[in-house]
Amino acid sequence: MTIIHNDYFALESKGDKVLIQVVQSGFSLKQFDMILRSHPRIKLTNFSSLKNALEQANEQWIEIGLWLPTIEVDIAKDKMSATVTIYETLDVIMREEEALQAQITQALQQSNVVFGVKPVPAAMIVPGKAVLIAQGAEPIDGEDAKITYLPKPERKPVIKADGKADYYEMNFITEIREGSWLGEKILATDGTAGTNVLGQTIPAKKGRDFPIRYDKKSSYEEEEQGKIVIRSKISGILTDDKGMIKVSHHLPIAGDVGVETGNLQFDGTITIRGTVAAGFRVIAKGDISIEGANGVSGAELIKSLEGDIYIRGGIFGLGKTKVEAGGSIFVKHVNEAQLEAGEAINIGVYAVGSNLRAHTIMVDERKGKLMGGEAIAKSSIITAISGNHLERRTNLIIDSVNKQEVYSEIQQRAQAFKDNQQRLTELEGMLAKLAQVAQLDSKQQVLRQQLQEQHVALLDTLMREDFEIKEMMEKVRQSGKEEILVTKQAHPGTYIQIGKKSSLFTKERKGRFKLEFGELNV
C-alpha cells in the first residue's frame, strides 16, 4: 500500500514493514520528521538506512520501519490490566470517534479482554500513547484466625494513688467456675477471588489458621455462632501452663496450715487465707497463695512445682524456711530464708541474710534493700540499696547462661519436636484412612478412639515443646546483656560478680554494673 509518493521518494507498506524508494536527493531528515508526525502508524526502526537512502537516492527499496496497526492492545504480564494505543492523528481521532470506538471494541474482543473494560473518550486519547482500557479485580485475601483468651491478671503489686506499691494486694488468683468462657477463635476466612482482564478467576489466599492453646484435661471447645469457644470443664483457678490456658483444681484453706491440716500436697492451686505454721510443708503443682497479713514464720518448705508463689506478709525464715517455685516468687520481705525460682524473685521491701536464686531478682528499685546473704541470678539483679553501714558482706552474682549447654538442649528438644511432628503426621494418616471406611466394626471404633486420644495428647506435647524451645532461645538472645543495678547505695562490703569478673566494694557506689569489653565497669 502506498503511503506517500512525491518527486523525491515513494513510501509504501508491505505487511507490517515500511519501505522507501528514493529517486531524487535533497529531501532533508527534518522534512521527513514532519511526515512521521503526520503518519503515526509509521514506526522508524532503522534511522541510518533512512539517512543513507535520502542522501544516495539509488532507487532501491530500503526497509526503514514498521507499519503499526491503527489500534494496539497490550495486556500486562500478570493479566491484571490492559492498555490501548491509537496510532492515528488527533484530527482523525476526534473526527472519526464513533468508528474508532467500534474498532477498539473489536480489538479488545480479538485480544480476549472481557473484564473491567473502561470507556475511553476521544478527549483522553493521545496519539501513540498507551491509555488504560481495562483493569482486573485483585483477589482479597482471607482474614487470619483471631484468638482471644480470658486475660490473666498481671502479677504485680497494686499501685496506690500516691504512687507507692502495695505488696499486700496483688491480683494473684482468678477463680473460674465450671463452664466459664476461657477464650475463643474466630475462624480464618476464605477471602474473595479476583478476576483478571481475560475473565479468569484468581483464587484468594485463605487466612492463616492458628491453634488455640488450652489444656484439654481442664477445658473443652465447642462451636458457638460460627466461633470456636473454649470453656472450663471444672471449677478452679486460671493458670498458664507453658503458654497454654489452663484451669487448675483449687484447694482453699480458710485458716492456717498447721496441726489441724497437717502438711499439704496438692495437684493444683492452693490458697491459704492464714499462714503456714513453723515446721510444716506445702507442696502444689500449681500456684500457692498465702494471704495472711503476718506472713510465714519458720515454715519448713513451700514449693510450687510449675507455678508461682505469693506470700502477702513476707517470710521470717529463722534459717529454716525454703521457698521454691517453678515460675516466680512474690513476697513483701525475706528474713533468713532460702528462695529459688525458675523465673523471677520479686521482693517488695527487703531481704536480710537470705539466699536467693532465680533468672532475675528484683527488689523495689526505689527503696528495696538487699542486706547480707547471697543473690544469684542468670540475667539481672535490681535493688535500691545493697549491704548496710556496718559493711555487712552482701554477694550479688550473675551466673550467666551457658550458651553451649543451652544450644545443646535446644537441639535435643528440636529433634524431639521433629520426631513428634512425624508421629503426628502418621496418626493423622491412620485417622484419615479410618474416616474413609463406611462402617467401622467394633475393633476399628476402639482403634479410632485410641488414635484420637493419642492425637490430642501429642498436640499438647508439641505445643509445650514449641513454647519451651522459644523460651530457651529467648534466654540465649538475652545473654550478654546481664547487669546488676543498684539505684541508690551499694555499701562497702558489697561483692558483685558477673561471669568470672568480680569486685568487692571498699567504698560506697551506685549504678548499673555490667561487662564492657570483657571487664566490669566499676
From TrEMBL:
Pfam (any one): FapA_N
Coiled-coil blocks: none
Flagellar Assembly Protein A N-terminal region domain residues: 71-239
PANTHER family with a match to the protein in the record: POLYMERASE-RELATED, RNA-BINDING PROTEIN KHPB N-TERMINAL DOMAIN-CONTAINING PROTEIN
Protein name: Flagellar Assembly Protein A N-terminal region domain-containing protein
Source organism of the structure: Metalysinibacillus saudimassiliensis
